[in-house]
Structure formats: C-alpha cells, structure tokens
Amino acid sequence: MTMGDDTPVTSLVLPVLIRPILTQLERRDVTAAQTLRAAICKVEASNPGFAYDFVVGILRRGDLGINMNESILRLQGTVSSNADADVERHLTRTEDAFQELNRKSTALKRILSRIPDEISDRKTFLETIKEIASAIKKLLDAVNEVASFIPGSSGKQSLEQRKREFVKYSKRFSNTLKEYFKEGQANAVFVSALYLIHQTNMIMATVRDKCE
To answer: According to the 3-state scheme, what is the secondary structure of 130-142?
Structure first.
C-alpha cells in the first residue's frame, strides 16, 4: 500500500485495537490503564500514526503474518457493538434524528466488518453487497435529517462536504468490488471498506463538532 492508503487503517488502530485492551485493563487496574491511555493518546495526538506503527512493530517482532487491513476491518464489528469502545463515534444528543444516525452508522460498519468472513463465498458475499448498498443509502438519508439541526451556513457546508466525500468513497468501493470479481484481489476490498468506515467516522465527527 502507499502511505495514503494507510490513512483509514492508522485512524482506526487506536479505537479498534488499543482502546478495547485498555478498557479491559481498566477493570484490573484503573490508575495504570488511565495513565497508559493518556500517554498513548498524547503521543498519537502529537505524532499521528504512532498507534499503527506500535502495533505493526509488535507484529513484526513476533513474526506474525497478519493482514492488518483484514484484522482491523474484522474487529470493527466488535467495536461498533461495544458502546464503551466506540463512545467517541457516537452522538449524545437525544433527538430521533441523531440517534437514527448513530444506528445507521453502526449498522454500516458492522456489515462492512463481515467482509473478511464472507468474501470467499460468492453467493453470500453478493447478498452482503446488497446489504451494504442499502446501509449506505440509509446512512445518507439519516445525514440529511440531521443537517436541518446544524446552525449556520458554514456548518451545513462542512457536513455537505463530508457527505460528498462519503459518496465519492462509496463509488470507489463499488468500483473496487467490480475489480475484485475480475481479479480476485481481496485486500483491495478490505482497504476500500476501511476508507468507507473512515469516511463514516468523519461524518459523525463533523456532526458532533457542529451540533454538540
């Protein structure tokens, strides 16, 4: 992959891999877990990509032949179903529109997380693709509903830009699927799905920034 392709993987390593581990550690030693969490988050904030390099370094030292794209994508389903681990991705406003956007973003990420397990079964994967297309449409509908709550034209423009980016990567995902059925490059599908999850998270972050 190119460095640009690492972007969604890098942004997902911290919430998908490291935060759930820290949450488990917190149950044993709260002080140690919070100290480690603060240190990792501080380093990640000043050196974006640290968490990714940290995990990759461990895998290389252990000589583990693990596909990071596949692993992060697979684990995304677990994180999306865990409110504690995915708390930063969820909106806290109680209006139906915001809660519906929470549900639709989670649903899309859970479906995408099934790709590694289902991609080798053509019939099952084709049904999953239909589910993904439906989930994308429902997410966009939910975004449109939330847009009316955003104050000011600049906030609305920011969300509209995020929505356009999401649509762009949705189309890329569709094109990647077409290439997969011609050439069988599963990793390209994993990367494209991660980009879609990343764009979903960016929409949620924009809504939080403008509305909460």
So the answer is: HHHHHHHHHHHHH
